[in-house]
Specification:
Elements: E1 3-4, E2 9-12, E3 14-16, E4 19-20, E5 26-30, E6 34-35, E7 42-47, E8 56-62, E9 67-78, H1 80-90, E10 97-101, E11 109-123, E12 126-136, E13 141-143, E14 146-151, E15 157-165, E16 176-181, E17 186-192, E18 198-205, E19 210-214, E20 219-222, E21 246-254, E22 256-263, E23 266-267
Antiparallel strand pairs: 1-6, 2-5, 3-4, 3-10, 5-9, 7-8, 9-12, 10-11, 11-12, 11-13, 13-23, 14-22, 15-21, 16-19, 16-22, 17-18, 17-21, 19-20
């Protein structure tokens, strides 16, 4: 599939895997050229039925991962030793790393990506930089994770809150929840009134313990002991907590001292 990459960043510094490009005097550019994969597309999952003229749409899958061609240059020149160090830092990595572009309209997002297909840029035998592709882990960039927290000083919590899911994915988002049980132990319930009153619940909480529920990878753990608390969700048929797109009106009840929602939203950057 061919398409235009409109995600322009122009001769700007960047940070990759925690290292700033200014260490080497490098700047990165993506000038909106052609790319094999513009990202943020969907793959249709369909089923054909005998003697029916139309396919049934069973769902969609966010696909394919975002690919962006980039040019990385230095103002003067790079020695062979400097180029070797840069190549070791940027290229041939075996896992996705965070790439942050240092310009005002991209300060809240990053790409989780690997640099691929690097080629040297030379002028008259002088090394001036590299052409490469960045290949991301998804069709989107990512907002940096943010935490929304609430603290309580009561035996039984009963609070209504609102969380805005600003994700650019129309599908559900499954955040991380961290909380501490109070001195009485007991349970936590969250009703998402915006999601057909979908109920998340976890019971059998021990007093004054810290818990982490990763609803995306479906784990529930008591943090001190590492004890698995997924079985404690069976009373509600193991329904994991999720957001719909946009405003989510939630009702929180339970015997807890505090709760945090850790949000990590995918974003289209254009």
């Amino acid at each position: 599939m061919e398409g235009k990459n409109n995600m322009g960043f122009y001769a700007t510094h960047f940070i990759y895997d925690g290292v700033s490009s200014s260490t080497y005097g490098l700047r990165i550019s993506s000038l909106g050229g052609d790319t094999e994969n513009p990202g943020a597309d969907v793959e249709l999952i369909t089923q054909s039925v005998y003697r029916k003229p139309a396919n049934y749409l069973l769902g969609v899958r966010q696909s394919p991962p975002l690919t962006i061609p980039v040019t990385i240059t230095v103002e003067t020149e790079l020695s062979a030793t400097e180029s070797s160090r840069i190549s070791k830092w940027l290229f041939g990595r075996e896992d996705y790393k965070k790439l942050q572009i240092i310009q005002p309209d991209m300060q809240y997002v990053y790409y989780n990506c690997i640099f691929t297909n690097p080629t040297l840029i030379r002028y008259g035998g002088i090394i001036r930089g590299y052409n490469a592709n960045i290949v991301c882990d998804s069709p989107f960039a990512w907002e940096f994770p943010s935490r929304i927290s609430y603290t309580y000083d009561t035996y039984m919590v009963n609070q209504n809150i609102t969380i805005n899911n600003t994700s650019d994915v129309v599908d559900y988002i499954y955040p991380i929840i961290e909380f501490q049980s109070n001195a009485f132990g007991g349970y936590l319930e969250i009703i998402n009134k915006s999601d057909n009153r979908r109920l998340f619940s976890i019971t059998g909480l021990n007093p004054l313990k810290y818990y982490r529920v990763d609803n995306n990878i479906q784990t529930a753990t008591e943090l001190t002991s590492g004890e698995n608390y997924v079985p404690n969700m069976k009373g509600n048929n193991y329904k994991w907590f999720r957001y719909i797109n946009g405003i989510n009106n939630l009702n929180i009840t339970g015997t807890i001292n505090y709760i945090s929602f850790i949000n990590h939203f995918p974003k289209k950057v254009s």
